Structures are given as structure tokens and as C-alpha cells.
């Protein structure tokens, strides 16, 4: 990334942190009081963002699997960037979901009194497993370069790199071979862990029997496809920006195109079956998505900007890496609309007829519009993720190392 | 006259039932509520009785009364459906709680451990009856200006009601500030704290139409046991298999 563009993005991230800190202060002092959701729509923007980030991590996850489990050479170049991306995205995810807890200081309860019948407990377990695996994977992928950088007289902060390399001072072919085997082993572990993690997140919603839109075997599948689509699009975009590998970008673009088609097909199925079955609550929720207050997020953001335009680009400009990258960026940027339209409509339909006409209070309504505080907190978390990512891309050997030592497969 | 009016108030009978139940082995008691829709007048006294008893803040409600209009003009009627927590015998809410903060106690009452709940609201989403609400830390006196006089200002108003500790689950919850139950999931608990003191739930005693009945359904002498034999009995959403311990009479 060019220096000016880099500085611009760092500036943006810092600005985001400053602006968003107002929301964070409100959140930390007043708990969940400054949010707009209530008891009938108990999850809001932050859960939508959680799901967005969940999806974004999946594409990077897949790349690391292709690179180190199936040993596909062409993905090796992307390996460390992907592992690092998964790590950052997971961190953003956990911040979003922790902030969403009414009593976040009790998060240790997951360890003390876990309920293994709850899918949320499994999400916690699998999330931590992913975090540990990806932290280790990133470490072993970049260790060679960390050692090389710690000895490079022209490089500032050599002590820091030595610390990160855990004091290791030499790195030879034996180390490389061993680290590669470790990365391979970790990738083997992360394959079932990751699949379970992404599947569990879909099942988390699908098992709720009173939620007609979610309570379907299609949900976990839709989740996996959505994750691969948005995550794949992110990786294609990052490949273009950081690695400038045109061939890789265009082939990733083709994969994204297929995912997009499958996703739209599944979504169309959901609407078709819902309207045909004509179950009152399902139709109400679908109507909310298509014709409710937020119709524009569905038609304009998701279907227009996030599907139709990228589809055209990916079909007719498939050999132009720049166009493909921007099509992918559009998908990523508009995917929040998909997540929002997944979380809110099912919650926003009263589960008992007549409940809305009794005991009025803003927290007992199904109408939900995220408020400024929720947006500010979101801006803060995203800016934090962006800043860590950018600093890492500059100060850690996660993109292109300078070929002095390190793992050649990662270059 | 003696043939048409009951010889004693049902509250007196239920009070006797309660005394008997409290002497039984707690393991064998199954607390049950029966609500007679034919008698409910939709006065909302139970809702407010509950709010006052449990010092519920704004936006938290345990027992709203749902009003329905049935039929077509001119043959229109109104029907009322008080909706406490159903204390499901197969509760979907407890299964999803990641930290075992909500569970059915020995008498089948589904409770929330306020000191354990992390406030994830998964149980709110899982409950098919929307019976749970989250405490967002609201205050009735939030926008009230604090007048200089201590007698008239917000602080004084709050102290007379809002800052009064609630006694849910037999504990004195501290004055509302930032501690639990703020941030927790909250719901009807059949007034366990009153039961243990030999009192019927607040909604039962405040019901102006004597439409809400309470007792141990395992006790063949109890009023609720008899009511459950009625052909008018139904439960909400039976198709979900939640097996509510709150029954309705049509
Ligand atoms: S009514 Fe809802 S909160 Fe009450 S026990 Fe059943 S599922 Fe749980
Ligand atoms: S809100 Fe509390 S009681 Fe409900 S599922 Fe979460 S931790 Fe359990």
C-alpha cells in the first residue's frame, strides 16, 4: 500500500476512534441504557455487526485452509495476510458481542458455570479455539521474518521483533520445516473447528422454534454461504490492495461470483417457500424485509449495490482485477444490510397477537432504529480493527516480507 | 341467594391451599396458576400489583394483560389475556442460557439468578411467549427536573418509590444504581418471596375479578387441582410442547 494511502487510512481510523469514543464512554458508564433496542427486539446493530465480522473471517479462514491443508501453492502468498485478517476480525467480533452484554463484567461466567446445552456456550468455546489457533498460526507463519527483522541493522524496533519472536535469534531451514509442519497441523485442527464455529453460529438461530424465519435447516447453510461470500469478497479486495496479484484477484472474483449466485438462490428460496407456505408470522417477517421501514436496505443496498452491480461487474469485467476488487468491496460494504435484515425482522414480529396494544414503553416495541450511540460504538470498534490491521500490515511481516529469511512459502 | 354466591372468597380457599402446600415436602409441590378468561375484566390491576410488588422499572413488565377484540360489528366483544411467565415444564429459555443463570427450581418455577446472568438476552429471544424483559436501567423519574427542595425534587420522589429495594427471590436488591438486576433478564417468578412468607402472588391477591388462581396442582384438595379438571382448560401455543404451568379457562 502506498504511503499516502496508508496515512489516509490510519488517519481515518484514528478519527473513527476519536469520534466513536463518545459512544464508548456512554456505553461504559450507562451500560445498555443508551441503546435503542428493547425487550421485544433484544438484539440490534451490534449483533448484526458481529455477524458481519463473523462472515468476513470465514473467507480468510478458507484461504488458510486451501493454502495449508490442501497445500494449494497459489494461496500461499495470501496465507499470512489471511491468518492475520482472521485474527483481527475475531477480535472485532468479540468486542462487539461483549459490548452487547447487559453485564459484561460477568463474561467469566462462561468458564465458571457453563451450560453445554446452550449453543452460545459452544460459540464461546469454538470462538476461543479459533482465536488461539489463529494467533499461533500467525505467529508460526511470521516467526522466520520476525527473527530476520530483529537482526536487520536498518530496521527500527529490533528489540520488539526479538520479543515477538520470543527471543529466538537464528532461523534456519530446520526451523522453517518445523514451523511449516506446525502451521499445517494447526490448519488441520482449524478445519473442523472453523466449520463447527461457522455452522454453530447458524444453528444458534436455527434452533429457536418460535422464530419462523430462523427456525429452518436452511439457516446454517445460508450462514455458511453468506460467510464464504462476504469473507471471500474481502480477501479478493485485500489481495488487490496489498498483494497486487492480478491472477489471484480474478480467480477469487470468479469464486465470489459463484457464491453470490448460490446465496441469491438460497435467499430467493427462502422468500418463495415463505410466501407459498403462507404462515402468518413468516409472511409478516418477510414483508418487513421487503416492504417494511427498511425496504431500502434490502432493495437498494443488498440487491442493488451489493448484488446486482457486483454481479454485472463480475460477469462482464471478470478479467479486470481493479473492477473485480471494487465489485468485492461493494459486496463487503453492503453486507451489513444482509445481516441487519437477518437479525431484526424475525424479532420485530410480535410473538403474541395483541401484545403491542398493551403496556406501552419504547423498550416494549418492535420498531427498532439503531441510535447514534450504537453507531458511534460501532465506528469505534471498526476503527480499532482497521488501525490494528494497518499497523500490523506496516510493522509486522504479515504481507510481503522483504525476502530476508522467513518462510518462503508465505512469500 | 346462598345457592348462587360462593360461601367463601376463593382467596380464603387459596390461602388455605397455600398453607397446606408449604407444609408438604417441597419436592412434591408443583406451583400452578389458572387464569379464567371468562372472569377477567381487563382492569390491569394484576399488572400494576406486580409492578408495585417487584418495584419494576419502566420497560420491564412481568404480567401484561393482552386485549383482543373478537367478532364483527355489531357483535363485537373484548377478551383479555393476562400473560405472566408460563413457567414451562419444558422451557426453551433455560436451555439456551449459556451460564445456567436461569433454571426451573424444585417446584417447577423458572427463576433467574440475577447475580449470574450476563445479560446476553438469548432467553428473551427463545421465549415463545415474550415473557421476559431486559432491565435497561430505566428510571421513572429520569427526565424529572431535580428541584432545589428535597421534598419535591427527583431524589425525594425516587427515594419514595424507585430507590426502594425490591425483595425478589427473597433478597433485598440494592437501590437502583448500576448493580443487578440492571442489565439482567427479568420475568415473573410466581412471587416466590411472598410464597415463602405464606402469601399468595401479588397478581392473585390484586385481581379484582378473582380470575387468577394459584396453588399446588399435586394436591388433590387444592382449588387449582379441581379447576384443571374443567373442559374449559387450555394452554397457550400447545403445539410448541413447552407444557406451561399456567393454564387458562376459556
Ligand atoms: S414462558 Fe418463556 S420465560 Fe417463562 S418458562 Fe416459558 S419459555 Fe421460559
Ligand atoms: S440473559 Fe441472562 S438468563 Fe437470559 S440467557 Fe443470557 S445469561 Fe441466561
Tags for this model:
A: 411 residues; mainly alpha; Formate dehydrogenase/DMSO reductase fold; globular; B: alpha+beta; Alpha-Beta Plaits; four-stranded mixed sheet; two-stranded antiparallel ribbon; 8 helices
Descriptive account of the structure:
Chain B: It comes from Desulfosoma caldarium. Chain B: Residues 31-50, 108-137 form the 4Fe-4S ferredoxin-type domain. Chain B: One of its GO terms (molecular function) is metal ion binding. The complex is a heterodimer of chains A (411) and B (250). In chain A, 73% of the residues lie in helices and 0% in strands. Chain A contains 13 helices and no strands. Chain A has helices spanning 3-30, 45-68, 73-99, 109-112, 119-151, 158-164, 173-206, 218-243, 246-277, 280-291, 295-316, 321-347, 372-395. Chain A is globular, with a radius of gyration of 22 Å. The model of chain A is unreliable at 401-411 (pLDDT under 50). Chain B has one domain (10-249): Alpha-Beta Plaits, CATH 3.30.70. In chain B, a hairpin with a 5-residue loop joins strand 4 (102-104) and strand 5 (110-112). Chain B is globular and about 60 Å long. The model of chain B has no long low-confidence stretch (mean pLDDT 90). Classes of the chains: A mainly alpha (411), B alpha+beta (250). The interface between A and B is large, with 48 and 50 residues. The site of one iron/sulfur cluster has 14 residues of chain B, from helix 3.
Amino acid at each position: 500500500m502506498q504511503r499516502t494511502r496508508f496515512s489516509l487510512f490510519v488517519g481515518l481510523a484514528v478519527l473513527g476512534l476519536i469520534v466513536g469514543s463518545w459512544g464508548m464512554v456512554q456505553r461504559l458508564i450507562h451500560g445498555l441504557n443508551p441503546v435503542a433496542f428493547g425487550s421485544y427486539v433484544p438484539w440490534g446493530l451490534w449483533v448484526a455487526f458481529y455477524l458481519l465480522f463473523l462472515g468476513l473471517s470465514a473467507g480468510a479462514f478458507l484461504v488458510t485452509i486451501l493454502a495449508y491443508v490442501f497445500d494449494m501453492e497459489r494461496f500461499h502468498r495470501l496465507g499470512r495476510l489471511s491468518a492475520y485478517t482472521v485474527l483481527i476480525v475475531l477480535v472485532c467480533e468479540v468486542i462487539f458481542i461483549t459490548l452487547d452484554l447487559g453485564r459484561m463484567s460477568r463474561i467469566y461466567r462462561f468458564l465458571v458455570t457453563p451450560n453445554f446445552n446452550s449453543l452460545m456456550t459452544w460459540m464461546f468455546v469454538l470462538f476461543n479455539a479459533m482465536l488461539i489457533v489463529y494467533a499461533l498460526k500467525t505467529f508460526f507463519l511470521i516467526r522466520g521474518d520476525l527473527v530476520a527483522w530483529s537482526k536487520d541493522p536498518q530496521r527500527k524496533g529490533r528489540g520488539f521483533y526479538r520479543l515477538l519472536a520470543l527471543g529466538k535469534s537464528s532461523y534456519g531451514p530446520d526451523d522453517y520445516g518445523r514451523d511449516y509442519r506446525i502451521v499445517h497441523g494447526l490448519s488441520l485442527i482449524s478445519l473442523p473447528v472453523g466449520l463447527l464455529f461457522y455452522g454453530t453460529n447458524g444453528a444458534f438461530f436455527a434452533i429457536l422454534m418460535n422464530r419462523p424465519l430462523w427456525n429452518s435447516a436452511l439457516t446454517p447453510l445460508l450462514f455458511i454461504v453468506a460467510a464464504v461470500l462476504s469473507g471471500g469478497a474481502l480477501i479478493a479486495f485485500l489481495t488487490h490492495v496489498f498483494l497486487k496479484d492480478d491472477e489471484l484477484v480474478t480467480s477469487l472474483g470468479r469464486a465470489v461470483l459463484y457464491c453470490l449466485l448460490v446465496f441469491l438462490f438460497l435467499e430467493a428460496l427462502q422468500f418463495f417457500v415463505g410466501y407459498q407456505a403462507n404462515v402468518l408470522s413468516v409472511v409478516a417477517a418477510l414483508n418487513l424485509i421487503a416492504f417494511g421501514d427498511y425496504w431500502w436496505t434490502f432493495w437498494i443496498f443488498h440487491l442493488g449495490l451489493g448484488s446486482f452491480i457486483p454481479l454485472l461487474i463480475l460477469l462482464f469485467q471478470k478479467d479486470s482485477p481493479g473492477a473485480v476488487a471494487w465489485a468485492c468491496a461493494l459486496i463487503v460494504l453492503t453486507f451489513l444490510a444482509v445481516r441487519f435484515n437477518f437479525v431484526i425482522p424475525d424479532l420485530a414480529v410480535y410473538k403474541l397477537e395483541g401484545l403491542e396494544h398493551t403496556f406501552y414503553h419504547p423498550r416494549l416495541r418492535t420498531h427498532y432504529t439503531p441510535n447514534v450511540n450504537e453507531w458511534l460504538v460501532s465506528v469505534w470498534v471498526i476503527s480499532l480493527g482497521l488501525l490494528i490491521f494497518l499497523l500490523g500490515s506496516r510493522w509486522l511481516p504479515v504481507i510481503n516480507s522483504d525476502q530476508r529469511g522467513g518462510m518462503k512459502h508465505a512469500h | 341467594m346462598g345457592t348462587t354466591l360462593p360461601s367463601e372468597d376463593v382467596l380464603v380457599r387459596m390461602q388455605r391451599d397455600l398453607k397446606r402446600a408449604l407444609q408438604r415436602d417441597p419436592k412434591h409441590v408443583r406451583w400452578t396458576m389458572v387464569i379464567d378468561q371468562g372472569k377477567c375484566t381487563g382492569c390491569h390491576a394484576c399488572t400494576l400489583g406486580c409492578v408495585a410488588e417487584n418495584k419494576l422499572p419502566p420497560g420491564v413488565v412481568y404480567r401484561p394483560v393482552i386485549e383482543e377484540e373478537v367478532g364483527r360489528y355489531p357483535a363485537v366483544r373484548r377478551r383479555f389475556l393476562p400473560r405472566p411467565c408460563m413457567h414451562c415444564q419444558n422451557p426453551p429459555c433455560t436451555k439456551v442460557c449459556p451460564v445456567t443463570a436461569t433454571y426451573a427450581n424444585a417446584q417447577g418455577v423458572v427463576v433467574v439468578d440475577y447475580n449470574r446472568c450476563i445479560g446476553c438476552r438469548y432467553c428473551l429471544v427463545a421465549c415463545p411467549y415474550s415473557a421476559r424483559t431486559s432491565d435497561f436501567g430505566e428510571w421513572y423519574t429520569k427526565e424529572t427536573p431535580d428541584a432545589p427542595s428535597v421534598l419535591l425534587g427527583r431524589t425525594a420522589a425516587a427515594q419514595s418509590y424507585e430507590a426502594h429495594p425490591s425483595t425478589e427471590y427473597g433478597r433485598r436488591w440494592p437501590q437502583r444504581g448500576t448493580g443487578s438486576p440492571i442489565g439482567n433478564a427479568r420475568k415473573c417468578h410466581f412471587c416466590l418471596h411472598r410464597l415463602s412468607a405464606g402469601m399468595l402472588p401479588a397478581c392473585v391477591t390484586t385481581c379484582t375479578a378473582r380470575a387468577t388462581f394459584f396453588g399446588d396442582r399435586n394436591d388433590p384438595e387444592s382449588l387449582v387441582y379441581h379447576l384443571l379438571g374443567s373442559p374449559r382448560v387450555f394452554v397457550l401455543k400447545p403445539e410448541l410442547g413447552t407444557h406451561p404451568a399456567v393454564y387458562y379457562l376459556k
